[in-house]
Design goal:
The protein is α/β, with parallel strands linked by helices. Helix content is 35%, strand content 22%. Strands 1-4-5-3-2 form a five-stranded mixed β-sheet, with helices on both faces. α2 links the parallel β4 and β5. The chain is globular, with a radius of gyration of 14 Å.
Length: 118
């Protein structure tokens, strides 16, 4: 299981790093960490209200990020990552705040974001 980033300082340290991948809705920030007591691999999610108005949608996105990173942890380089929502999922296309269609769309895009680069 991948550790989660929780403090503002941890998020700020990752945001000071670089963006390593982008998709239509997400950006992946990465920061290498020194060998300390911190976990070797940690993930955080930034899903602002600007792009996901409903709390249930933000929480669904976070759950999908954690599930995909747990599944793909063996492919990720050690360090801290933040997946940042950077665009809204169309409310006309995804009418329900949390639907299977939305979950599948988010999961597919996250697998593209976190998966191996060709």
């Amino acid at each position: 299981m991948v550790a989660h980033l929780v403090s503002k300082a941890q998020f700020d340290a990752v945001f000071a790093g670089r963006i390593v991948a982008r998709t239509g809705h997400f950006a992946l920030h990465y920061a290498a960490i020194a060998a300390t007591a911190q976990p070797a691999l940690a993930i955080g999610v930034a899903s602002p209200k600007r792009w996901a108005r409903r709390a249930v949608t933000r929480n669904t996105i976070k759950r999908q990020v954690y599930a995909v990173t747990d599944a793909l942890a063996h492919q990720l380089i050690a360090g801290h990552y933040v997946v940042r929502l950077r665009a809204e999922f169309s409310r006309s296309q995804f009418i329900s705040a949390t639907s299977d269609v939305l979950k599948k769309a988010v999961r597919a895009e996250l697998q593209q974001l976190l998966g191996p680069k060709s």
